[in-house]
TrEMBL record:
Protein name per its UniProtKB record: Phosphoribosylglycinamide formyltransferase
UniProt-annotated binding residues for N(1)-(5-phospho-beta-D-ribosyl)glycinamide: 14-16
Pathway participation: Purine metabolism; IMP biosynthesis via de novo pathway; N(2)-formyl-N(1)-(5-phospho-D-ribosyl)glycinamide from N(1)-(5-phospho-D-ribosyl)glycinamide (10-formyl THF route): step 1/1
Protein origin, superkingdom: Bacteria
Keyword tags: Purine biosynthesis, Transferase
Sites marked Raises pKa of active site His: 147
Job of this protein: Catalyzes the transfer of a formyl group from 10-formyltetrahydrofolate to 5-phospho-ribosyl-glycinamide (GAR), producing 5-phospho-ribosyl-N-formylglycinamide (FGAR) and tetrahydrofolate.
């Protein structure tokens, strides 16, 4: 069987990238072939180095006004694109080149607390501010709008009246690390089924 290739887009610390890299480290059938980032200072770059995964940095102009990233990913024969703390909207041509092959993780229960500007701590602050009694994670396919693609998986955690945004963030991160690698694997296996049809 051909090795499946994953590429990951990340802008931040990269803790989810690390969990995904750990999960697939012993797998001969799956390779994380590249990490793409818009942030030269992102913690994910050091983590990628530790796992010997190449990193490609790009800027806003290169991402939105050229097709360099899309054509590179097409040339590389990428099977699945994983967003793990990537904060920019995916350009339309990139989404269209990889239908149902881009997955994102969002740190709340979509459709609540999604959309432009809803990322990282802003999400948890909004959840606490709204007096929610639960939060969680949503793993979904990516379409042309922020956080609106088809939901693949959700998991919840309680929000206690005494929880602040940091407390919610910690609970949500536990869920992300527990589930994202496994769900990415499941999406990959489903791609294999589609190939066999
Ligand atoms: C994660 O909580 C992820 O859900 C969130 O960024 C964090 C990245 O953490 N993504 C978004 O908010 C996207 N809208 P990490 O860099 O430690 O993996």
């Amino acid at each position: 069987m051909r090795k499946r290739s994953i590429v990951i887009f990340a802008s931040g610390s990269g803790s989810n990238v690390e969990k995904i890299a750990e999960y697939f480290a012993d797998r001969s059938d799956v390779e994380i072939s590249l990490i793409l980032s818009n942030n030269p200072k992102a913690g994910v770059i050091e983590r990628a180095r530790r796992y010997h995964i190449p990193v490609l940095l790009f800027d806003r102009t290169g991402f939105y006004q050229t097709d360099q990233v899309t054509s590179l990913l097409q040339k590389q024969g990428v099977d699945l694109i994983v967003l793990a703390g990537f904060m920019w909207l995916m350009p339309v041509p990139l989404v269209q080149a990889f239908p149902n092959r881009i997955v994102n993780i969002h740190p709340a229960l979509l459709p609540k607390f999604g959309g432009k500007g809803m990322y990282g701590h802003f999400v948890h602050e909004a959840v606490v501010g709204a007096g929610e009694t639960e939060s969680g994670i949503t793993i979904h396919f990516v379409n042309e709008q922020y956080d609106e693609g088809q939901v693949i998986f959700q998991a919840t955690c309680p929000v206690e009246p005494t929880d602040d945004a940091e407390a919610v963030a910690r609970k949500v991160q536990v869920l992300e690390h527990r589930h994202y690698p496994r769900v990415v694997d499941e999406v990959l296996q489903r791609l294999d089924l589609q190939y066999e049809l």
